[in-house]
Every structure is written in C-alpha cells, then in structure tokens.
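Hello,

Our lab assistant flagged a job as stuck in the queue for most of the afternoon. It eventually completed. Since we weren't sure the result was trustworthy after the delay, we are filing this so someone can double-check. Below is the sequence as submitted and the structure that was eventually returned. Let us know if re-running is recommended.
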Amino acid sequence: MDTRTALLAAAAALLVAGAVGAVAAPDALTDPRETDEPPGRIDIAGATVAPGEVRGETAELRLGTDLEHRGSTVENVTVRHRAIGSESGLLVDETTVDVGDVDFEGERTVNGTVTVEREGGYRIETVVFADGERRTSRTTRIAGVAALTPDYADTRVGFTDGAVWPTVAVSVADADNETATLSVSVSVTNRGDEASEDVDLRLYLRQADSNVIAAEATETVGAVRPGRTDTVTATVEVPDGYNYYVDAALFDDDVLVDETQGVANLNPRETISANQTVRDVEFSVEDFERGEGGAGRDDAGDDGSRDPSASDDSAPGFGPAVALVALVVAALTARRRR
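-- returned structure --
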C-alpha cells in the first residue's frame, strides 16, 4: 500500500470514529456558546438624590442609581438623567453616563449629576438603555432647592438666639457733654460639629430719627468650638443724647452669613426697640459727617442750640438740620395727600 492510500484510509477511520462518538455522546459537540444561563436582565433597584456644589443661582444634584443585574452579560449599558421643571415641564439639564458591559451579579451604584436653578422643584427622570434599547426607568421628584445654602455662605457660626441672654448688649463705657463711648458685646454660637474658622463681625450704629450711620466697627470672631458661645466686644464713639439702632452682621470672606439688631437708648425722653420699621428721611451729606473716631455733635450751648461761632470744620449733629428736613418731608407728604 502506498503512502497516499494509507493517509486516505486513516482519514476515513477518523471520520467513522467521530460519527460513532457523536452518536454515543451527543453533548460532546454542543456549541460552547449555547448555555443554560438565562438572558441578561438589568433593573433599577433604587435611586438617591443629594446636593453637590451649591452656587448663587444654580445647584448641582448628585444622582445615585442602583443597577441590579441578573443572568448573562448585558452589553453597552448607558444611564440617562433628565431634570425637568415641575411647573414648567421644560428640560433644564440632561446627562448620560456610559456604564459599558454589565456582567456583575447583584447591585452596583452608578453616579451622575445634573445642574438646576436654585428655585422651584424638579422631576428627575432616569432611563437605562442597553445597546440603545430602553430597558427600565424611574422618576424622582424633588422640591425646596431654594433652601440649599450656597457653598460660599455655608458656615455654622451665627448669632445666639437666646430668650434671656441678649444677642447684642450695649453699655456706656465713657461719656462727656457731647459724646458717649459705647461698649457693644455680641454673642455668637457655633452650631456645627467642628471648630469654626475666623469670620468678621461688622457693626453699624444708626441714629434712630435720621437713619444716619453715626459710627461703625469691625472685629474678628476667632475659632469657636462646636456648640459653644463666644462674646465679641467692640468700642464705638457716638454723639450723646440720641437713640441708635445697632446693626450687627457676620461676614465670611465678604459674604453675609447672619445678621441681627440691637438698640442703644441715650435719649432719656424717648426710647426705641429693635427690629422696628424706621421711616426714611432724606438728608444731605453735610448734615452729618463721620470721622475716623466716630462722629461728634454740633457745638452747642447748655440749652442744646447751635453755637453760631462754631467752626465749619466741626462735625454737626442730628438736631436742627434733621428736624428741618423732617418738616420739609412732612409738608410735601401733606401736600400730596390733598
């Protein structure tokens, strides 16, 4: 038998053996791609919304989508988020997260973000796609976005809100015939869980009748421990014999974070209370001037009248000029009412 004939005989024998094996064990030639594993299924098991970066006009919303997978691999999975205005129904923002092939068993969180305006409410629509085919979806509604505090104003230090202990306490440290030196003590409380950073306390003292700023001061509020209350004191000099509103504000890097008000009653014949509506009175700059050490009263005699011999360089007070302006305003108001 030559070589060619021998090779043909061997090939024929192999074919016969293979056919016999296939009949005896039919599973031996099963396509390896064919398994008993069910087709892949992907669902949304849960969804969360949390505030991210909060700016002055807009806020970032962090969206967490819990994907639940069973079965074989689901290819080319994407998650789309849409933020839609609750009242307008308009699309505000949209983002798509590329997940890729999903072959894990159980749940896994996919994170995404949308940016919305800090007003009104929104409807967050989340849709899961596989190869461009919609598989599942979920809608989450949110409201009160305007209540989110911007990052630049996020501080836990604020003025103390006590029922008995005063937030703003004013005492007279010194006084003469024209001016009074006031000691203003302000209480601040750290409502956070960590020690606070430095903030600025700014004070304005406004004369009650004219609304003129008579004096101002700035002090630094140092670190306040969590849950503790500290008192910050500033000294100002104002014309004596008048009543003043004490406007206090806390600033963090020039951002107003809290404000309150107190009073200083230096006029024994009339008193004022904090948080009252003050009537606006027009005035000229020359009616009251403010120097580095606070403003002084007009040169006056014992009866409170202005001394004609007083120098023009002295800082005038509130009395005659403001009274004249008040009379003019009253006359104009009465004329309009007629």
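-- support follow-up --
The delay was a queue issue, not a problem with the job. The result is valid. The CA atoms of residues 12 and 222 lie 97 Å apart. The longest strand covers residues 41-54.
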